[in-house]
Design goal:
The protein is 76% helix and 0% strand. It is an all-alpha fold and 439 residues long. The protein has a single domain, classed as Sodium:dicarboxylate symporter (Proton glutamate symport protein, Orthogonal Bundle), CATH 1.10.3860.10. Helix 15 runs antiparallel to helix 16.
Length: 439
């Protein structure tokens, strides 16, 4: 089946069979069930629905990254290109991540929603996160990129460790030339098969989204929102501003519309919204970006690296939450201290990547360096952190998608015809298997 036929087939589906509609309905049902039946929603089996779906997706992330990166690099004739793409990606990540930090800082200074809260935090509630933050040092982060064993890295699903080995393996296949022909074909065929697994797993996305959302609302809200609604609203608004203004300007520079791009990845965004995990949509995002006209080698390098080095949503959260806590505790931070927050956050946002609750852990690390007196204030935002994790994940995945398109364009490997053809029509992620097999 051709991709055109496939996309028409997706458009002709009854509305109740379209994945993003199913996920949206599941999220809404989860909110209602969590709100009206909190005891039922906090049952361990309801929580297991969301956790189980995320585990199913994580099961295939390592093989997808390995196959995509190895295939992309081994088909490149010029070894220097890999280093060039990597440097371009890191330069982009650093510039855009810094903009995210600055925007969070500016919005917190302008609106000052923490003032007048007169909070008395409970330091014990966040002690565990502080210990994790202290354990996450820059040296350990660098050493942790090197796996103890290849099998162990694949088994744990550690993105950066798998990425490192995949790059080295891809270079080895490149050096072998024609002798590696059969092995390259095997890697490509394995990637097609794993995408087929994803197509099957994605059918469970509505169930996973329902379970995760019902449990979150049942356990944390809506009472947990309380007088902290100002911070939540400001964070949502700041994230939206960043996506529309900053990412929108980058998209316009490259030659596409950010709103059309968001519509194109709406299925992935809804899955992230339901599960609060940007990793839950990583495999489909990589496939969709390839279909959008980005080269396989750029997608394979930029997307996995971006999950550790391009966390725009987490960066906005760190500066915004740090100033909110300071305002709530009545601590006035000088201009110099606020610059320190920027510098420290640039480092800590990389150090705790890939750790569960990374946003909260990086916040603990930032506060500890800026002013130890602020650390107990983490308890103020602890109860609402779950409501902000969704927006962190949504901003992160959108930022990584735009980054991949930009680096492909910068590298001169963006197919503009494909880009506009795909952004101007709807494609269902259930077409993943078909699209990959026919591609």
């Amino acid at each position: 089946m051709s991709p055109t036929t496939s996309s028409h087939g997706a458009a002709a589906k009854p509305w109740y069979k379209i994945l993003y509609v199913q996920v949206l309905i599941a999220i809404l049902l989860g909110v209602v069930v969590g709100w009206l039946f909190p005891q039922f929603a906090t049952n361990e089996w309801i929580k297991a629905l969301g956790d189980g779906f995320i585990k199913l997706i994580k099961m295939v992330i390592a093989p997808i990254i390995f196959c995509t990166v190895v295939s992309g690099i081994s088909h490149i004739d010029d070894a220097r290109k890999v280093g060039r793409v990597g440097i371009k990606a890191l330069v982009y990540f650093e510039i855009v991540s810094t903009l995210a930090l600055v925007i969070g800082l500016l919005m917190a200074n302008i609106f000052r929603v923490g003032h007048g809260l007169a909070a008395k935090p409970d330091a014990a509630a966040v002690a565990g996160y502080l210990k994790q933050a202290e354990a996450t040092k820059a040296v350990d982060f660098v050493l942790n990129i090197i796996p103890d064993s290849v099998v162990g890295a694949l088994a744990r699903g550690d993105i950066l460790q798998v990425l490192l080995f995949a790059i080295l393996f891809g270079f080895a296949l490149m050096a072998m030339g024609e002798r590696a022909h059969r092995l390259r074909d095997l890697v490509d065929d394995t990637a097609h098969a794993v995408f087929g697994v994803i197509a099957i797993v994605m059918k469970a996305a509505p169930i996973g989204a329902f379970g995760a959302m019902a449990f979150t609302i049942g356990k944390y809200g809506p009472a947990a929102l309380g007088n902290l609604i100002g911070l939540i609203a400001l964070f949502y608004a700041t994230a939206a501003l960043f996506v529309i203004v900053v990412l929108g300007a980058i998209a316009r520079f490259v030659g596409f519309n950010i709103f059309k791009f968001i519509a194109y990845i709406k299925d992935e965004l809804l899955i992230v919204l339901g599960t609060s995990s940007s990793e839950s949509a990583l495999p489909q995002l990589m496939e969709k970006l390839e279909r959008l006209g980005c080269s396989k080698s750029v997608v394979g390098l930029v997307v996995p690296t971006g999950y550790s080095f391009n966390l725009d949503g987490t960066n906005i959260y760190m500066t915004l939450a740090t100033l909110f806590i300071a305002q709530a505790l009545g601590v006035d931070l000088s201009f110099g201290q606020q610059i320190t927050i920027l510098i420290v956050a640039m480092l800590t946002s990389k150090g705790a990547s890939g750790v569960t609750g990374a946003g909260f852990i990086t916040l603990a690390a930032t506060l500890a360096v800026v002013s130890p007196d602020l650390v107990p204030g983490m308890a103020i935002v602890f109860s609402i952190d779950k409501f902000m994790s969704e927006v962190r994940a949504l901003t992160n995945i959108t930022g990584n998608g735009v980054a991949t398109v930009f680096v492909s364009w910068w590298e001169g490997e963006l197919d503009h015809d494909k880009l506009h053809a795909n952004l101007n029509r709807q494609i269902d992620p259930s077409d993943v298997k078909t699209a990959v097999t026919t591609g």
